[in-house]
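Morning run. Coffee first, then this:
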Amino acid sequence: MKIHFILVEPAVPENIGAAARAIKTMGFSSLRLVNTKDHLDEKAGWVAHASREILEKAETFSSLKEAVKDMDWIIGTSAKKRRVNEDFYPINKINAFIEAKANSIHNVAIVFGREESGLTNEELKLCDIVTTIPMKTTYPSLNLAQSVMIYAYTLSMLNYDKKETLDQKAGQAELILLKNKTKNFLATIGFKEDSAIYNRIMERLMLLGETDIHLLLSIENKIYKKFQENLDN
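And here it is:
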């Protein structure tokens, strides 16, 4: 499994450099940037110090949608709840979620928003879950680089094998198949993609562990088989 840190439109070069430093010190190497080239600024390199290679190898994208296209599981971050009827999970739960998914995910994205405004509602919708760092006070808030460090530290405690295996490939395929089958099933019974309940169902789906993925996929296969039998008759 590989964890990718994604910064969306960061405005302060020093924050990008500090984020790169945090990522490297916690054992990670993948940094993706959306709509910025400030990682090339000397200020970013100065703060990154011995982590300049993270900046040099950082991948850049024009939108978050492009940046997460090859991700299996997308974890958004937010300082405050902005979406109605959807769960925000504290950071201390994400390791358990990832471990439960076992071989069903390989590429995991941790997405951070703009320093001043965070992620937009549309960007949050691209995330499978949204997480937050619980704080004792609402002000002063954590800055971007501090948030990246806390997430990197938390994720560094994950116990996983970084080598991709055949089981991981099979698990990823099952998760993709489950997502597609569920989307088709919801469309068949009349749920629209822009409805609140559709998004709620898909969000809960992405919290399933590997065992539950197998179970739900088996149930959906039975349902599709029954539908097909009824059509044939």
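The chain has two domains: 2-156, 166-232. Good start to the day.
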